[in-house]
Specification:
Chain A: Keywords: Cell membrane, Membrane, Sugar transport, Transmembrane, Transmembrane helix, Transport. The complex is a heterodimer of chains A (about 350) and B (about 300). Chain A is mostly helical and about 350 residues long. Chain A has helices at about 1-30, 35-50, 50-75, 85-100, 105-135, 140-160, 195-210, 215-225, 225-230, 235-265, 270-275, 275-285, 290-315, 320-350. Chain B contains 13 helices and two strands. The chains are: A mainly alpha (about 350), B mainly alpha (about 300). At the A-B interface, α5, α6, α12 and α14 of A face α3, α4, α10 and α12 of B.
Chain lengths: ~350, ~300
């Protein structure tokens, strides 16, 4: 009974945040002179209106879920991994190159490409973790800087050595991956691919890992109370390396999924311009790093994005309304984190414990 | 070599450095009062956009800059309120503020100017270029230091003023004591919250100036996400400079020079990808050599917020 009550109380704040976000969106819609009800109706239709739009939303949420899970795990351990974008790009690039140049049967190459994506993302993230642990270089900043290096490196690889020279288009991209290697579609003629199932499984696995295993408990402990965790024998550096490699691996998996399931090639700028990684960070903030909550929040954000696209097709309201709603949502939730922190402090005082 | 290191390279170093320097000084003020402001990027972006809007509304550069300062102060007050009064994690608030800035500016670009991506108007007047008497006649020095926008000179003056304020004035001592130990500061009657608010609002003013230099300095235009990570580079400059105005100036010069240099290298046969990568790699290397120990202690004090 208590658990149910607790989860319900946990739901109140996100719902309130969604309400405030929609209110801010309504103001923005009124500013540009649109009808709030009609615009939101079009938005809903664009995201969930029919089966095709619904699967589109789920397809868009796939990389957001995976990248968000990675960030969530690092947050849980107390580290700000802002490098999901770079990790995702390197993951996508490695997956594309593996899929193009590794011989063998299609299913084998596909799995190898996914693994290559995970490894590339994991190593890039681990590098930042190593710089922090070994040399004390602030993780938040190094991961941000490594993003730009990865973006430029990916751009170079597909503009020069691995550029697609077969087509007439002058796009910076690799050649098309062979059809046998593609991730299968879940429904005929829809954009939703098997990557979505992988993302859901990953969310459940991460939930199981952080909430049911000893290592997961140690990671959460490290994030919530570092000195207590160290006192209790948690090896901080080791846990940091572990959470960073999983975190980056998930972002790399997100990139690999996009390449193998949606674009079938690595296209320069396609992963960063859709800002999947930043949406993932938003999803994590909304769900306060809960793995299953992150998946739900990612679907919500994807719905806002696809909904905004549908809305722009049918009304005069610009699709940027979607980003305003997302941003207000996130800001409001970040304030709520402080609110709960305040409550915790009060409880501490009434228990008469010293800080 | 002669072609590579001419006066124009150092002149453009100064121009590129200024937005980073101004934002980094704002970041330094925030970190001096114990708030690590990750939202610099967003504040500068809002500054750049509101400067263009102000220019469009009033047709006057000075009024545009003042308008931009007011708008950015509103947003920095929001940051201050959430992280000081609601006691939210400043890093999380900063990240959310960046989202808000990106979303609001792209939306307002559509709503106000009805364009996508970028707004440009050839009739709009940018910041003036000032020739410094005497200096402009010295051969090499004149080419480097003369003929820039007033904000560049203002930035250098602010560095000197801030250095003096922080380390030589009573009010500056109080400000630093808030960051060092808020409880002790409060016990001797210093209004901790008031000082924190003041520092964050000043940071807003500096970020507005940084944004104005970006959008009104060279070309009078605004493009979506035109800060392109400069706010984060400013954050690094704050850390490398140990939140010391002179140190911040030194690291900003380094970043400005690297970027100017990488632009210059594009004229040669190197692929642009590598020249664009260069400033970030140099930043990483610089972080390796100049570690900010004080920040690490701050983070530990704050309950390991980032580490």
């Amino acid at each position: 009974m208590n658990r149910v009550k607790e989860s319900l109380r946990g739901l109140v704040q996100p719902l309130l945040a969604v309400l405030i976000g929609l209110l801010a969106g309504a103001i923005a819609i009124m500013v540009v002179g649109g009808s709030v009800v009609d615009t939101y109706a079009e938005m809903w239709k664009g995201a969930f209106g029919n089966f095709y739009f619904f699967t589109n939303t789920l397809a868009r949420s796939t990389p957001i879920i995976l990248a968000g899970l990675g960030v969530a795990l690092a947050f849980r351990a107390g580290f700000f991994n802002m490098g999901a974008e770079g990790q995702m790009i390197l993951g996508g690039l490695s997956a594309a190159l593996t899929a193009l140049y590794l011989p063998g049967p299609g299913w084998f190459v596909c799995i190898a490409a996914i693994v290559a994506g995970i490894i590339a993302g994991g190593i890039w993230s681990l590098f930042a973790g190593w710089l922090d642990a070994r040399f004390g270089m602030n993780l938040l900043i190094t991961t941000l800087l490594l993003n730009y290096i990865a973006i430029n490196f990916g751009g170079y690889m597909v503009s020069y050595p691995f550029k697609d020279t077969t087509g007439s288009a002058a796009m910076a991209q690799t050649p098309m991956i062979d059809q046998t290697v593609w991730l299968p579609k879940l429904f005929q003629g829809m954009s939703l691919h098997a990557g979505f199932i992988i993302a859901i499984v990953a969310a459940i696995l991460i939930y199981w890992f952080t909430h049911k295993t000893v290592t997961g408990y140690e990671i959460r402990m490290l994030g919530s109370n570092p000195s207590f965790a160290t006192y209790g024998g948690v090896r901080r550096i080791r846990m940091m390396m572990l959470s960073m490699i999983i975190s980056g691996g998930l972002a790399g998996l997100a990139g690999a999924g996009e390449v193998l399931g949606t674009q079938y090639r690595f296209l320069d700028g396609s992963l960063s311009s859709a800002s999947y990684a930043w949406s993932g960070i938003m999803a994590t903030l909304l769900a306060r790093s809960h793995p299953l909550g992150t998946a739900v929040a990612a679907v919500l954000l994807a719905a806002l994005q696809t909904g905004a696209m549908g809305m722009e097709r049918n009304t005069d309201v610009p699709l940027e309304v979607g980003s305003v709603i997302q941003a207000v949502l996130t800001l409001f939730v970040s304030a709520q984190i402080g609110y709960s922190f305040l409550k915790r402090r009060k409880e501490k005082k009434s228990n008469a414990t010293t800080v | 070599m002669q072609q590579l290191f001419d006066a124009a390279l150092f002149g453009s170093t100064l121009r590129i450095m200024t937005p980073i320097l101004l934002a980094a000084l704002g970041g330094a003020l925030c970190s001096r009062v114990g708030l690590f402001n990750v939202g610099l990027e967003g504040l500068v972006l809002i500054g750049a956009f509101s400067a263009i809007v102000g220019n469009y509304l009033f047709g006057n550069v000075l009024l545009a800059v003042i308008f931009s300062i007011i708008i950015v102060m509103l947003f920095s007050a929001l940051f201050a309120f959430i992280s000081i009064n609601l006691k939210a994690n400043a890093i999380v608030v900063g990240i959310s503020l960046n989202f808000l800035a990106a979303g609001l500016t792209t939306f307002a670009l559509r709503a106000i100017f009805d364009v996508k991506g970028a707004y440009y108007d050839k009739d709009m007047q940018g910041l003036p270029k000032w020739d410094i008497p005497l200096i402009k006649d010295i051969p090499w020095v004149g080419d480097v230091f003369s003929g820039h926008s007033p904000l560049i000179y203002l930035g250098i003056l602010i560095v000197i003023g801030l250095q003096f304020y922080l380390f030589k004035s009573v009010s500056g001592f109080r400000l630093r004591s808030v960051g060092e130990n808020p409880v002790a500061a409060q016990s001797i009657g210093i209004k901790v919250r008031g000082i924190q608010y003041g520092a964050v609002l000043m940071c807003g003013v500096l970020c507005a100036l940084a944004g104005a230099q970006l959008s009104l300095g060279q070309v009078t235009m605004f493009t979506e996400g035109m800060t392109a990570g400069r706010g984060f580079i400013a954050l690094v400059a704050t850390m490398l400079g140990q939140a010391n105005p002179l140190g911040v100036m030194g690291s900003s010069v380094l970043f400005g020079f690297m970027e100017a240099f990488s632009i210059r290298l594009q004229g040669f046969t190197l692929p642009t990808h590598f020249t664009q990568m260069l400033p970030y790699i140099v930043t990483l290397v610089a972080m390796f050599f100049f570690k900010d120990r004080t920040y690490q202690q701050d983070a530990l004090k704050a309950g390991g917020s980032s580490r």
